[in-house]
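Lab intake sheet, docking and co-folding queue.

SAMPLE TYPE: protein with bound small molecule
LIGAND NAME: flavin-adenine dinucleotide
LIGAND FORMAT: SMILES
REQUESTED OUTPUT: full 3D complex as structure tokens
PRIORITY: normal
SUBMITTED BY: R.K., bench team

The fields below were copied directly from the construct record.
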Amino acid sequence: MTKIGSLYEDTAAPAPTTVPLTGAQEADFVVIGAGYTGLSAAIHAAKRNVRTIVLEANEIGHGGSGRNHGHCVPVYGFINPEKAIEKLGTERGNRFTRILADSGDRVFSLIREYGIDCEAAPTGALQLAHSAQAMPKMERQHAFYERLGTNPVLLDRDQAIALTGSQSFHGGWMHTGGGHLNPLGYVRGLARAAMTEGAEVHTNSPVLSLERKNGGWLVTCPQGTVHAKRVGIATNAYTDGLLPPLGKSFFLMSSYAIASEPIDPALRETILPQNHNFGDTRPDVRYVRFDKQNRLIMGGLVEPTIGTNFDKTTAFIANRLKEMFPRIGKIKWRWHWSGRIAINMDRAPHLYNPAEGLFALVGYSGRGVPTATALGEVLGEAGCGMPTNELPMEISELKSLAAAPLLSIMVPRLRGPYNRLRARLE
Ligand SMILES: Cc1cc2nc3c(=O)[nH]c(=O)nc-3n(C[C@H](O)[C@H](O)[C@H](O)COP(=O)(O)OP(=O)(O)OC[C@H]3O[C@@H](n4cnc5c(N)ncnc54)[C@H](O)[C@@H]3O)c2cc1C
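RESULT FIELD (auto-filled):
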């Protein structure tokens, strides 16, 4: 197994036992990629008695799903109920909006349904204003999610201070459907759930080629093949050259995470005392949460030195923490890892159907815990054979984003300094 040095490799509940694909197999639906998207699709299809095989190049959760910050924040800039109805019609448009609006609840209901051991904390996710000027944005978001019926809670300054233990915030709101979890434990649990429903999951089985054959698809791995009616590609930021130009339809950035040794219990009681997770309105968002053993987990987007060099990264994060929690003292950081995120220009995931029976769902733009879980079920519906004009998601045209290579190089270099300057000027 390729180790990435994450906290979760040391703390997540074990993965189910899986082996590589061997021999010549038959299936209705092959899913490529064992992350949230692929496994959610597999659970959905297998539950409907569709013979489903998941093929993963590495181990379960090798991609973003096993290494993210663990925030389940079902807040998306791209939900627009009116636009969804305009594009998809009333019934499908409303379904699309509902899937996203309820995506946090979906994560925690799957965890309950399958008894997934992943430190699930359905506490609600805090969205906090870093300045007084940012409060109107928080109020607008709160009103929007209230209209969607997700029971958000508006927080004034005193409430934000009480819930975080920090004087830095001017208020905000809580998405009550959000929370946090151990992401590797969660994705391993989804794999177990897919297997319980009858899907096969094969690891160390990179798909090398896809060929149209006998009205279906021949999917080839190093030691075996599957002939299937339909294929769902769920490889997000870890997309290789299997289906050009899928890997060039978005641009890539890297996100890093660091985690500390458990902090002093008395100090812990003063920071996020009700075990919430939060993100704020700074352009360079600050994400903070604790795991079950009071380890502090933070991170952000990788810049030239931040997120790559352990000493520089921990010094940078220590400064941020001190600003927010002046009494925090010295934290012992132990884990430092990173991963890729796939960003579409509209920040929304896209579903593609470039050939009959072939689907791909990618481009979560760094917010996949609830999104990939919930929209993975749409990929599962496609895998069950639902006609594309009945799916609750638009089919996008698959094409290269010409600026992807340049954006992948330039944005990480310029983004951090630019965003910090913006935050100072606000
Ligand atoms: C450091 C970091 C922090 C993040 N923090 C958060 C967060 O706090 N909250 C949040 O909501 N989101 C977060 N994200 C984003 C989130 O992790 C992703 O959006 C989500 O995991 C995407 O899931 P997925 O199943 O689509 O893809 P992935 O989990 O990336 O899975 C894709 C899989 O496809 C496999 N694969 C690729 N090619 C092949 C092939 N040819 N054959 C077989 N298998 C193949 C890969 O090995 C991989 O396992 C973060 C991401 C990173 C990297």
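REVIEWER NOTE: The mean pLDDT is 95.
SIGN-OFF: pending second check by T.M.
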